[in-house]
Design goal:
Number of helices: 1
Radius of gyration: 16 Å
Strand content: 35-45%
Distance between the termini: 27 Å
Shape: globular
CATH superfamily: Jelly Rolls
CATH architecture: Sandwich
Length: about 190
Amino acid sequence: MEVIHTEIPGVEIIEPRVFRDSRGYFFESWSQREFDLKVRPVAFVQDNESRSTYGVVRGLHFQKGRSSQGKLVRVVSGSVLDIAVDIRRGSPTFGKHVAVELSGENHRQLFIPRGFAHGFSVLSDEVVFQYKCDNFYDPASEGAIAWDDPELGIDWRIPTGKAVLSAKDMEHPRLADADCLFDYNEDLYL
């Protein structure tokens, strides 16, 4: 696997080596040894999958405090624009984001470390989205920021009138008004 560093340290694009022939393709989608060596040592404890249709926007979500999660996300079929936002107060990249198109064709994955909000928009007619988490889901620790916060400047590549959100995702505060964010100087992996 190849690791592509983004403009925010710790947020990494993973490109697997894909072997194609007349039968189709093969690639190694996960290797603990390679990930620990090339990205960071992480023990993933939960895998999740969702299916969504064009225009769905999910996010921007995070888990607070000791329940914070790092995620390794990928698309099985279809395509999304995947977003990671730095919500670590005091970080030189606080409020900045990384946007990466992930698809069943490019097989890219994105690692979002703890201390970031995460979301995606569906660019294809349908998408099957999978992600690994390095901490268990804790509903009492849910946090989120507004997907359309103008201060974040995210181009979701979906016309605003076509965005499909849950009622919950329409009610999140802007980053400036959010509480329970992270401290840049705190090691969230201890």
